[in-house]
Design goal:
Helices cover about 0% and strands about 50% of the residues. It has about 120 residues and is mainly beta. It is globular and about 45 Å long. The strands form two sheets. Strands 2, 4, 5, 6, 9, 10 and 11 form a seven-stranded mixed sheet that branches. A four-stranded antiparallel sheet has the order 1-3-8-7, with no helix packed on it. It is built from no helices and eleven strands.
Length: about 120
């Protein structure tokens, strides 16, 4: 199983980035996909989520209207389009694949990609 994030980098405030997460080794279409972010010393925060078929999405309030999550089940890839970036969006961004099941949910994680918003 692999989740490989890409697209991070340094961007000025107000700029845009698109993160990608390429998945392999599991049935991508059967998993909800999520983007988390984490800054040193703080807990990992759920930023955006999309349901397995792509019909539902969820965003943390601080990114609503600026970030868009999308999922391409034909390419086994999930994206996070980030617009109007702010310095407080600076963090390591992690891709997560999640499937609810009994007795234990299944979660896979990527290695993370750094996003730095600074002038």
């Amino acid at each position: 199983v692999q989740l490989v994030e890409s697209g991070g980098g340094l961007v000025q405030p107000g700029g845009s980035l698109r993160l990608s997460c390429a998945a392999s080794g599991f049935t991508f279409g059967g998993y909800d996909m999520r983007w988390y972010r984490q800054v040193p010393g703080k807990e990992r925060e759920l930023v955006a989520a999309i349901s397995s078929a792509g019909g539902r999405s969820h965003y943390v309030d601080s990114v609503k209207g600026r970030f868009t999550i999308s999922k391409d089940n034909t390419k086994n890839t999930v994206y996070l389009q980030m617009n109007s970036l702010k310095p407080e969006d600076t963090a390591a961004y992690f891709c997560n694949a999640h499937r609810s099941s009994w007795p234990r949910d299944t979660d896979y994680w990527g290695q993370g990609t750094q996003v730095t918003v600074s002038s």
